[in-house]
Design brief:
The complex is a heterodimer. Chain A contains 8 helices and 8 strands. By secondary structure, chain A is an alpha/beta fold. The termini of chain A are far apart. Chain B folds into 2 domains: 128 residues, Rossmann fold; 142 residues, Rossmann fold, CATH 3.40.50. Classes of the chains: A alpha/beta, B alpha/beta. Chains A and B meet through α4 and α8 of A and α3 and α4 of B.
Chain lengths: 212, 286
């Protein structure tokens, strides 16, 4: 089944949210879940505009990880087709639909943190020296809604070592109070490159903190 | 002027059942750095020559591994939107996409891995077009063309594509540039020495990068001598609007990064055509 077909089925079954985005049908529209006065919103019809809207948070910070809970408000997309809807969502939340489909179908290829860190090369190869405890601490200070990430973590430290219980490890990938039957969860199949960069820094700090 | 013609605008055979995946570097600091990739993708999407067109990145989202989940098509052409062969094209991209050769079977999909755009001969046409745009009416016979790359002592391949372009331009039958130089930010010949190298009254400088960013906004202008070290950096595009600059008794014209040229979409398609002619017509076993 194509992603477009999967999305069509999901909408027909009552799905109306992904991340911080509300999906409306008849006609197809998208807006921020915290916006309610739809007539006051800036209208967009080109899926490509989603990239521009998602570039910066309100405070001017560049959102290089799109799963950040900092999506700007004030816009509404009026779209002509499910294909356009798919493109728009993929610009707001890259690969989110595909990862969701793969998770639902059981075809997701989860990359545990050790696999991700061990395959780093160049300046990031030192990230692999991060301790297990250091990795657990990083998850709790970088991931989950309290750290502005909207994704459900699918990976563990390695195949045998799960994440320690925390808000980040428990988060289901659905923003707000939406029911799981009405929202597409955002999933994290492998640690992002921001996490890897922070793992490199923490690994270095651990090394420097060791007694000589 | 004789130029290497871009073939694909008219001749690219549509691949409605295939996907194109453009791989870029991306940045955690400067959103301008990924803009050209989306521009190239949009241009190719508008031509309707691929069933799907997507971008993925090393430093931004979607990552290369995530990107495969976005694609319905069974056959994927991967084009590194990179300016040269090197660490990313030879190590990082094959590793992240789990490639085993020019054509790989990966998780049920067939992936064709093309050469980076910057090494394609049709880049020559873009450079020459860019010189016409940035210095209109300036006689080539009285001009020195400088192509500027990053350069690094770590990888000789990183300068090869620029050296090849210079050689190619010099040998074009109708090339009238008095001088053509390959120069670099971090290895000799240094762009900072341009005034010593150029014997012509006019100088045209083209940064051989995919995207504009710190290097083209600030670093190279500082090396050329018309910006100060402490100037603003990101998104400061005025450096391209104030041509020409009068420096060292010469008239200097400064171009935006070559990758911002809209015709880069044609180079991407040319790179795919080249791949097909070298590999798909003669399948290899890996």
């Amino acid at each position: 089944m194509s992603l477009t077909q999967k999305l069509t089925e999901a909408l027909n079954s009552g799905i109306n949210q992904i991340g911080q985005i509300r999906i409306l049908q008849n006609p197809l529209r998208l807006h921020h879940i915290d916006d309610s006065d739809l007539g006051a919103l800036e209208v967009h019809t080109n899926p490509g505009d989603a990239r521009e809207i998602s570039l910066y948070a309100d405070d001017g910070e560049y959102r290089f990880t799109k799963g950040e809970l900092t999506l700007k408000r004030g816009w509404i997309f009026q779209l002509e087709s499910i294909d356009d809807l798919r493109r728009t969502i993929d610009l707001f939340y890259p690969a989110s639909l595909g990862l969701w489909q793969a998770t639902e179908s059981g075809h997701i290829r989860i990359q545990h943190l050790r696999e991700k860190l061990d395959r780093q090369s160049g300046m990031y190869r030192h990230a692999r020296n991060l301790s297990d405890q250091g990795a657990q601490e990083l998850v709790q200070c970088l991931c989950g809604p309290s750290n502005k990430c909207v994704k459900k973590i699918l990976w563990n430290i390695d195949e045998t070592l799960p994440l320690q219980d925390s808000e980040a490890s428990r988060f289901n990938g659905i923003v707000g109070e939406a029911d799981e039957s009405t929202a597409i969860p955002m999933v994290c199949q492998e640690a992002c490159n921001f996490f890897v960069a922070e793992a490199r820094k923490k690994s270095k700090a651990e090394f420097e903190a060791k007694p000589a | 002027m004789a130029q290497v013609k871009l073939r694909s605008r008219m001749n690219f055979p549509p691949k409605p059942d295939s996907a194109l995946l453009i791989v870029g570097h991306g940045s955690t600091e400067n959103p301008d750095s990924s803009t050209p990739y989306f521009d190239h993708a949009r241009e190719i999407r508008n031509r309707k020559v691929f069933g799907e067109v997507h971008c993925c990145f090393w430093k931004e989202e979607p990552s290369m591994r995530e990107a495969l989940y976005m694609i319905d098509a069974e056959e994927i052409y991967v084009v590194p939107d990179f300016i040269s062969e090197g660490y990313f094209t030879q190590e990082v991209i094959p590793r992240e996409l789990e490639l085993t050769g020019p054509t790989s079977r990966v998780h049920g999909k067939t992936i064709h891995y093309c050469d980076p755009v910057g090494v394609h001969p049709s880049m020559t046409s873009l450079i020459l077009q860019r010189t016409d745009e940035v210095a209109p009416g300036v006689p080539q016979e009285e001009s020195a063309l400088f192509i500027v790359g990053h350069g690094t002592g770590l990888n000789k391949n990183s300068t090869k594509s620029i050296k090849d372009q210079v050689t190619h331009i010099k040998t074009l039958p109708n090339c009238r540039f008095a001088e053509v130089f390959d120069t670099y930010m971090e290895e000799a010949p240094f762009i900072a020495d341009w005034a010593k190298m150029a014997g012509s009254p006019n100088v045209i400088v083209v940064p051989f990068f995919i995207a504009d960013g710190l290097h083209s906004y600030q670093d190279i202008p500082v090396m050329l001598g018309f910006e100060k070290e402490e100037g603003q950096a990101a998104s400061q595009k005025d450096v391209f609007r104030n041509n020409p600059y009068s420096l060292h008794g010469k008239t200097l014209y400064y171009s935006a990064a070559i990758g911002t040229e809209p015709m880069m979409a044609d180079v991407i398609l040319d790179q795919i055509s080249t791949f097909d002619s070298q590999h798909v017509a003669h399948p290899e076993t890996h």
